[in-house]
Design a protein that fits this description.
The structure holds two protein chains of two kinds. By secondary structure, chain A is α+β, with helices and mostly antiparallel strands. Chain A has 21 helices and 25 strands. Chain A has two domains: about 190 residues, Penicillin-binding protein 2a (Domain 2) (Alpha-Beta Complex); about 325 residues, Beta-lactamase. By secondary structure, chain B is an all-alpha fold.
Chain lengths: ~625, ~450
């Protein structure tokens, strides 16, 4: 039986209209997604499918005053991990285990890093500065596990290794807290950042702009192809006033001492330019960039960040007698020829002050008193001059104030005298004057202050602010730093300068400073053996040197913590620094001009110059 | 009444209809092959798809030439065979991703649920045609449900929840077009909507209120989902409310029939109960689909990943698309299920707004032609078959595309003629062949 369906067509129309209406809704939605919000979704798709891989840019090179490279860069491989973006939960455990075998890292730590990368959805460095043999083994892993890749980038390299480490600083890891506010300046969580010394202070200038490769990645994090890249920009080169030879002499000298703790500063008395600034114990900044996390860990754990040259404060001991002499001579409280009898001790009321030479120096005048560093002579002289004058002269020589060298952590030390005492609300006694006269008591100075003082004596009164950067080659042009800047002036009568300098010459020629003698050079200096409550005496040697007939070209202050006698411990270090500054060599007891030109050692395994390498992923 | 008779092939074939189908298949093939290109088993997909196209065109020609009235005569045989095949697949079928829904023949695999759906339309049309006089009785609706239920149960046993879901709109659409009482259908639809809304509501409360304040509404709703005392209390409260409303309407002398006050709460209560039951049966992946729908931004890497990536693909396509084989979302694997369920997103990414609207337009053209053919069908059976197929295509289009553009929750329903799937393509083309046959026989004499 055939039945008509005309009567039902209205229902069918309603059904069709419902479908049409749904179709219209879909059309509107499509218009919204594809036309109206297209830009937004295109960006999301682009974020999905591309991954930026950053390559650390080479930092600016650092040269010494003679063009010797002291910090440069070299090409190195880094292992990065690109997390998958797909929904599938990837088991990261096998990858972590495989990598831990190759890298020698703790698998749990690696697993954490991998998970962090997945959470953050960004590429992360798993290991840096990999050696070549590891590189080839890791390249095999790359074919098994998607997401890991090797890139080439620039790594900081210090050709001398353990050299001027406190001055140069090192490259540290970003700590996540400071990264929060550095993020906007282009740092990434796995960026390296300069710390300590020049690397820290000139981070902005030294740091280049990282290069990057934009890669297409698939949902598993596999790199598919390169979209584009931008080249890194190398940081600005830094030209130091440092003389690598002097610095090396200072570093090695301090390292060889019994305690291995101390500081040495060499300045150019004509400008205040720092020739060497050394602090011991030091470290090899290259080790902090090692690919072996164990090495890094152990170095970081024992990193001697304390810069004794600017942050260490010590009693100056007998080295202070130079200032006492300046005060006495200039104020006419000392007649250099007047004699004093030294029985080996000095009585003041009920107190007895000993001379370092318990047998006594017998009869001494100012010349012999300074040369032999007779304490009794200075006890008496100090009483005659009075604490106030000594304090005043110590202040004019810059003690108790920072030298304002452009480094972090400098301390001002502590001036000792009636004025300081009064400011602290305490009185001043004759016993204090006696102590002050030989640089003891509460007087505290930093090695760099002593170097500035020595330079001031050498140049007859200019108190220079020490500086160590000559100029920077900024992209917009050379920025000069080497403009000498005066902290102040010491005004003494001309003959007082002469007597002071001659007295210091006598110290080296026939007094306690004999170990600092260099044939062919006029070395002037003053030893110091500072007593301290903390243990053995600190050894000081404060000096400067000149070629006969020329202006003094180097002023040196050396301190060896608990080193003992300044004469035997500190003076030889100063001597080798001065010889290095004048390019002299001690060959079998004969002083001859240095024949070898000083240049950075090239590591045998590292090939030619660093970073001629093309930018590409490997 | 004079009848205008067109003769020859021209009058026998509805060309716009066939062209719409061919256009969809062409665009689908291109998009599908582009989406599958990066897959390791692309060659196999390519061969299988081309084979399915060849077999499907054969099936269409067969359907076009085979008198559809035979299906009406043999409805019982079709029903029996379908049931038998569905039982067989549960026994000897092969499993794929935990679904026992395939016959793995040596050279191709075959999904009988697809066939069952068309068979159901053919059988249901015969049933409704036979019940023409009692079409407005509630018994018709109940019998139709009873007829469909065994087949649906067999399919849900596989388990293939998504295919089962598509039976509902087909059934409703055919009943509606056959002239069943609207109130019955509304009750049925209400029941279905409440059932479906329940898991959504529960999921929403779970996501929004992980620790609800005791005594608050979300806490009460979540307690209801646990099927305990709270459920009974809520149902009782609903019953009291309805009774009160009834008394109120009497007091107000409104001309309301008592049956509504019984039927409405009954439907609601039944829907709620089955909703709670279904909610308890949900598998975690199904739950995630609800989560993704109610809170799309909550878990972009997890539950909402599919939908999010699909929208990115479509949105980033822009007006003209990124070009074939050039979509980053599809070619780099960010878009999951890209050559099957989410093929429309690939079209959106690689062919742009132009491509998506073209497919939408072709689909609406196809459905419009099916509707037009239903109107000119020479008998009520043909009319009903076309109505069922129109409802089926319409529903699948809306559900699949709605899912891809983020308007509807994710349901694993492919887009016929576009998505990859050999058996689906062949059977879809065959069903179109039947429609074409209805057209070609519109003037045929008894």
């Amino acid at each position: 039986m055939i039945q008509s369906h005309q009567s039902l067509h209205q229902q069918l129309s309603i059904l069709f209209n419902m479908i049409l209406f749904a179709g219209l809704a879909i059309f509107v939605r499509l218009f919204q997604l594809q036309v109206y919000q297209n830009v937004e979704y295109s960006e999301l798709a682009r974020q999905n499918s591309t991954q930026m891989i950053y390559q650390s840019a080479p930092r600016g090179r650092v040269y010494d005053r003679n063009g010797v490279l002291v910090a440069t860069n070299e090409g190195a491989f880094s292992l990065i991990y690109l997390p998958p973006k797909a929904k599938e939960k990837v088991d990261l455990k096998p990858l972590a285990d495989a990598l831990s075998k190759q890298l020698g890292q703790d698998p749990d730590n690696l697993l954490e890093t991998l998970q962090e990368a997945v959470r953050e959805q960004s590429a992360l460095r798993l290991a840096e500065n990999l050696p070549r043999q590891t590189y080839f083994r890791l390249k095999e892993l790359k074919t098994i596990y998607p997401g890991i890749d090797l890139i080439e980038e620039a790594r900081r390299y210090y050709p001398f290794g353990r050299f001027a480490s406190h001055l140069l600083g090192y490259m540290g890891k970003m700590d996540p807290r400071s990264w929060k506010h550095l993020k906007t300046q282009g740092y990434r969580v796995d960026s390296r950042i300069g710390r300590l010394g020049i690397e820290g202070k000139f981070e902005k200038e030294l740091r280049g702009r990282d290069g990057g490769i934009r890669m297409v990645v698939d949902a598993q994090g596999r790199l598919k192809r390169k979209l584009g890249s931008f080249k890194w920009e190398t940081g600005s080169n830094l030209y130091l006033t440092i003389d690598a030879a002097v610095q090396k002499a200072a570093d090695e000298g301090l390292r060889k001492t019994a305690t291995g703790r101390g500081a040495a500063v060499a300045l150019d008395p004509r400008s205040g330019a720092v020739l060497a600034l050394s602090s011991a114990p030091d470290f090899d900044p290259n080790l902090l960039l090692s690919s072996d996390p164990e090495v890094v860990k152990s170095v970081v754990a024992g990193l001697p960040e304390f810069n004794h040259a600017i942050s260490g404060v010590y009693p100056p001991g007998s080295a202070f007698k130079v200032i006492v002499s300046a005060a006495g001579l200039n104020e006419n409280r000392i007649n250099p020829e007047d004699t004093v009898f030294c029985p080996g001790y000095f009585e003041l009321g009920k107190n007895i002050f000993l001379c370092w030479n318990h047998k006594g120096h017998k009869r001494v005048n100012w010349w012999t008193g300074l040369a032999q560093s007779c304490d009794v002579f200075f006890y008496r002289t100090g009483l005659k001059i009075g604490g106030s004058l000594i304090e005043k002269y110590a202040r004019t020589f810059g003690l108790g104030q920072k030298t304002n060298i452009f480094l972090n952590g400098e301390r001002s030390g502590h001036l000792f005298g009636p004025q300081t005492r009064q400011d602290a609300g305490r009185g001043w006694y004759d016993g204090d004057s006696v102590n002050l006269a030989i640089g003891q008591g509460e007087l505290l100075v930093t090695p760099i202050q002593m170097a500035v003082m020595a330079a001031a004596i050498a140049n007859r009164g200019s108190l220079w602010r020490p500086y160590y950067v000559e100029h920077i080659d900024l992209p917009e042009g050379r920025q000069e730093f080497g403009k000498p800047e005066k902290l102040g002036s010491v005004v003494l009568k001309d003959y007082v300068w002469k007597e002071l300098q001659d007295g210091m010459a006598l110290v080296v020629s026939s007094g306690t400073g004999v170990p600092a003698q260099i044939r062919g050079l006029d070395v002037r200096g003053k030893t110091g053996t500072a007593q301290n409550s903390g243990g053995d005496d600190h050894a000081w040697f404060v000096s400067y040197a000149e070629r006969p007939g020329e202006q003094p070209a180097v002023a040196v202050a050396v301190l060896v913590e608990n080193g003992g006698h300044g004469a035997s411990v500190a003076a030889p270090i100063a001597r080798s620094m001065i010889m290095a500054a004048y390019r002299l060599e001690d060959r079998g007891g004969k002083i001859v001009p240095s024949t070898s030109t000083f240049s950075a050692p090239l590591p045998a395994s590292r090939g030619k110059t660093a970073l001629g390498l093309p930018m590409r992923t490997l | 009444m004079p009848i205008k008779v067109e003769t020859g092939v021209k009058g026998r074939v509805d060309w716009p209809f066939l062209l719409a189908a061919a256009g969809l298949m062409a665009m689908g093939s291109i998009a599908m092959l582009s989406a599958a290109f990066p897959l390791p088993y692309f060659a196999q997909i390519e061969v299988r798809h081309l084979a399915a196209v060849a077999v499907g065109v054969g099936a269409l020609v067969f359907g076009l030439g085979f008198n559809y009235q035979v299906f009406q005569d043999q409805a019982k045989v079709i029903y029996g065979l379908t049931s038998a095949i569905l039982v067989a697949v549960l026994v000897v079928g092969s499993s794929h991703k935990g679904h026992r829904s395939w016959f793995d023949l040596s050279f191709f695999s075959f999904q009988p649920a697809e066939l069952a759906r068309i068979a159901m339309i053919l059988v249901m049309a015969a049933f409704l045609d036979a019940r023409a006089r009692k079409i407005r009785d509630v018994s018709t609706v109940l019998l139709a449900l009873g007829l469909a239920a065994p087949v649906m149960v067999l399919i849900i046993k596989q388990p293939d929840f998504s295919t089962t879901i598509t039976f509902c709109p087909i059934l409703l659409g055919m009943l509606f077009c056959a002239g069943a009482d609207l109130s019955h259908l509304l009750a049925l639809m209400g029941y279905g909507l409440v059932t479906g809304a329940m898991p959504l509501l529960f999921t929403y409360c779970q996501v929004r209120y992980p620790q609800p304040v005791p005594g608050s509404l979300p806490a009460l709703i979540l307690q209801t989902s646990r099927l305990g005392m709270a459920t009974v209390v809520v149902l009782a409260a609903a019953a009291v409310l309805c009774l009160g409303a009834w008394r109120l309407s009497i007091w107000l002398r409104m001309a309301a029939r008592a049956v509504y006050f019984v039927a409405v709460p009954l439907v609601l209560a039944a829907g709620m109960l089955s909703g709670v039951l279904i909610n308890r049966q949900l598998k975690s992946y199904q739950r995630n689909r609800f989560v993704a729908y109610v809170a799309p931004q909550a878990d972009i890497q997890g539950a909402a990943y599919h939908v999010h990536q699909s929208q990115i693909a479509i949105g980033s396509g822009g007006l003209l698309g990124k070009g074939l084989f050039s979509g980053t979302q599809s070619q780099l694997g960010f878009l999951p299920e890209r050559h099957t369920d989410f093929i429309y997103a690939v079209v959106g990414e690689e062919m742009g707004f132009l491509g998506t609207t073209a497919i939408l337009a072709l689909y609406l053209l196809l459905i419009w032609r099916i509707v037009a053919i239903a109107r000119v069908a020479r008998d009520r059976y043909g009319y009903l078959v076309c109505c069922g197929l129109a409802a089926m295509f319409g529903f699948e289009l809306v559900l699949n595309v709605g899912m891809c553009v983020g308007l509807l929750p994710v349901a694993g329903i492919p887009l016929p003629l576009i998505s990859y799937g050999g058996s689906s393509l062949v059977i879809t083309l065959w069903s179109l062949g039947i429609v074409a046959n209805v057209y070609s026989r519109r003037y045929a004499l008894l």
